Amino acid sequence: MTPDVVRKSAPCTTDVFGSAEDRRRSTEDVTDLHERIERAERRAEKAEQRRDDHERAVVTRARIDQVEGILMSGFGLEPDDAFDVLVWLSQQTNTELVHVCDDILRAVRTVDVPDACRDEITAVLDRLLRRTA
């Protein structure tokens, strides 16, 4: 005989995908993971930008130092005075400092060094190289 009373069961709180609470937590975990990944990607981009900026600064500083050396050698200036001249030129021409330096470097590279100077420089370099060998 079958009973006349149908039993009512409690509402189902689990299924093959777990409980509703488990699914909610899982969704929160995935969202948290995505946010952490996005933050890590932003940090990586910032680090790459800082590296690129640093590399650019090193190259720029080297060009400025080269021109300072040219001014010091050619005009007997102290390092600070040579830099001040470059800043003044930059301001007077409304040109970025590094571009002023690039212009000077291009001009210096196109100058022909007289044979007598070239021979003297070669002799000095030879003496220096023999000292270090």
UniProtKB/TrEMBL annotation:
Domain ANTAR, residue spans: 44-105
Biased composition annotated in UniProt, kind: Basic and acidic residues: 20-55
Organism domain of life: Bacteria
InterPro entries reported for this sequence: ANTAR, CheY-like_superfamily, WH-like_DNA-bd_sf
Gene3D superfamilies: Winged helix-like DNA-binding domain superfamily/Winged helix DNA-binding domain
Region Disordered, residue ranges: 1-55
Protein name, as recorded: ANTAR domain-containing protein
Species per Swiss-Prot/TrEMBL record: Actinomycetospora chibensis
